[in-house]
Every structure is written in C-alpha cells, then in structure tokens.
C-alpha cells in the first residue's frame, strides 16, 4: 500500500520545485508578450525627435493627442477612410459567414 501513494508524483519538494519553474516560465512569457504592447503605448506618446533620442521603454514627453491628430488628419484624413473600409469588410464578412447556407462546400 505504501508504494501506491508514493507513485502519484513524487515527494512534496519536487512538486514545489516544478511549480516554481512553471511559474517562472509563465512570468517570462507574460513579460515577453506584454513588453511590445507597453512599447507601443510609450512610443505613441513621444514626438518624432524623442522617439529615437530617449530611452525606448519609458515616457519622455506626452504628445499622444498631437500624434493622434497627425494620424487622423494625414493626407486629408485617409486613415479614417481606411478604418471605415476595414469595418465595412469585417461586418460584410461576418454577416456573409453567418447567413451562408451550410453544406454548400464539398467535403472530401
């Protein structure tokens, strides 16, 4: 009977060690995944000269609203046109996929 309880995963110390390794790997993956998003947010607040002359992962000046105005007024507002185009095709594709009759595609 003693061997049946010992075969469930080893001793308690090994479980804590494995848990620490898994937690450490998950934290590394979390940082690896969220760091580009943080960089995107920080970079959006900088002006053109500060973007390349200051440390990339921290704020130097807050020019977010000026940058957004520049994006939305660039070339007569072409970015707004692109956003509407993207929304239009997304909605049309979603509606088309949801109302398309099932079984119209030949299955192999």
Q: Helix fraction? A: over 70%
Question: What series of H and E elements makes up the topology?
Answer: HHHHH
- The radius of gyration computed from the alpha-carbon positions, rounded to a whole number of angstroms, is 26 Å
The domain tally reads 1
The portion of residues forming beta strands comes to under 5%
**Average pLDDT metric:** 86
Distance linking N and C termini: 53 Å
**Got a strand count?**
0
Report the major sheet. Answer: none
Instruction: Tell me the structural class.
Output: mainly alpha
**Count of runs of 4 or more consecutive helical residues:** 5
Shape descriptor: flat
Enumerate the spans where pLDDT stays under 50 for 5 or more consecutive residues: none
Description:
The chain has one domain. The protein is 70% helix and 0% strand. It contains 5 helices and no strands. With 108 residues, it is mostly helical.
Q: How is this structure best summarized?
A:
The protein has 108 residues and is mostly helical.
What is the topology?
Blueprint lengths: L1 H5 L5 H33 L3 H6 L10 H10 L4 H22 L9
Provide key terms for this protein.
108 residues, mainly alpha, flat
